[in-house]
Design brief:
Blueprint lengths: L1 E6 L8 H9 L8 E5 L2 H9 L4 E6 L12 H14 L1
Antiparallel strand pairs: 1-2, 1-3
Length: 85
């Protein structure tokens, strides 16, 4: 199960703590939606900004994000691969 969270009100004038909660949920723009795992940590974050977001429990599972290496590490690995040839 997942939580679909949508930013429905502007966070202008919100406290620094609330801004961090919104960023932690991955919301940036008004009307943006995110599908997140339904965990106690996520629910706690939503509770702190419940006046700014809408939440809905859905049966759909969120996709696991693929880890991307930093650019400098990818470039270093590419140079090593070329040198090994």
């Amino acid at each position: 199960m997942g939580l679909k969270i949508k930013l429905v009100k502007s966070y202008a004038g919100a406290s620094e703590r609330q801004l961090r909660m919104i960023r932690g949920l991955g919301l940036r723009k008004l009307g943006q939606e995110r599908l997140l795992k339904d965990t106690p940590a996520i629910r706690g974050m939503v509770f702190h900004v419940q006046h700014l977001v809408r939440q809905e429990v859905v049966a759909q599972e969120p996709n696991a994000r693929k880890r991307i290496k930093p650019r400098r590490v990818r470039e270093r690995d590419a140079k090593r691969a070329e040198a090994a040839r």
